[in-house]
Amino acid sequence: MKLVTFEEPHYHRERLGFLWDGGTVVDANFAYARMLRNQGDDYPQRLADGLVPPDMIEFLRGGKRSMRAAQEAHEFADEYGASKLRGANEEQAVFKSSELKILAPVPRPGKIIHTAGNFREHAKEGSESGWEFPMPHWISFLKSPTAVVGQGAQVVLPRYTKMLDHEIELAIVIGKKSKLLTKKSAPEAIAGYTIFNDITARDIQREEMKSGLLNFGKNLDTFALFGPCFVPKEDIGDVNNLKIECRVNGDPRQVSNTNHLSVPIPEIVAHYSWVTLYPGDIITTGTISGVAAFRKEPEKYFLKPGDVLESEIENIGVLRNYIVADVAGA
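Predicted structure:
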């Protein structure tokens, strides 16, 4: 099961959907309501709104009960025939993804905790390239939720940077309010996973890090890419063995595997749970080697207007974004 947040085309409301094979999106809330109606429930839509709400964060707050209901709705849609499914009140429940705006799975996360240094290959390439700042374990910073964009969105190259870089990562989606977790209890807080690309203005980052900061170089508008979907942990397969690849115009720039993580995912979540984690919060694992800044001739590899950026992780999908110039600076 792959879940998306999409903007439905009639009233432009955000809705929770299943991403179906063949480029189809099925409204999860309407699918569950139709299932209940077929089972003879007198108030199917009311119950569907409670168990499979159209808002992703509200859905995550429903915990295991909502996740089971979504799985039931997914199985029902598969058996019923997703292409002909309608809601309990005959609402349109099936859309072509090409006709929709697919948003980030959690369009407005409460917080995004970004971690670095957990793929030691990235730290090694930084050291070998002469990057002037050390990269130990547990470097962390917050990404701004206002920087979030999703599938197909444009990434704006600000007029005040010439060093726009990519950092593909696996993102952990929190599903349960939690605090002071242990490595053993941390998996209970994890709802699932998605793809994250931490866009970075390296020249701004360099200036900030002279004072020990990581702020605007990581947080300008459109600098937090994630999607295209959210995959529940039950459906991800072996999260410790997923292929990762970031491409620019079809050219593989970052290629690795989650089995190169030096810190296990439960330990990452537990480490940051000294602050209360809430459903819909995002924690990233850190990026892999291959970023532009650490190459021998980095100026050839920084992102430029017209570039197509593809971020792919096995069992999740491909997050595709487009680099554009800052119109205000034209």
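Summary: Residues 106-329 form a domain with the Fumarylacetoacetate hydrolase; domain 2 fold (CATH 3.90.850.10).
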